[in-house]
Amino acid sequence: MDTSLIAPLTGRALAITGASTGIGAATARLARAHGMKLVLGARSVDKLESLAAELGGDEHAIAVELDVREWDSQQAFAASAQRAFGGVDAVFANAGFGAERGFEKSTPELWKDMVLTNVYGCALTIRAMLPALRESRGHALLTSSVAGRRVLPGSLYSCTKFAVSAMGEALRQEADGTGIRVTLIEPGMTDTPFFEDGTPDWALTAEDIARSVVYAIGQPPHVDVNEILIRPTGQPV
Question: How many domains does the chain have?
Answer without folding.
Answer: 1
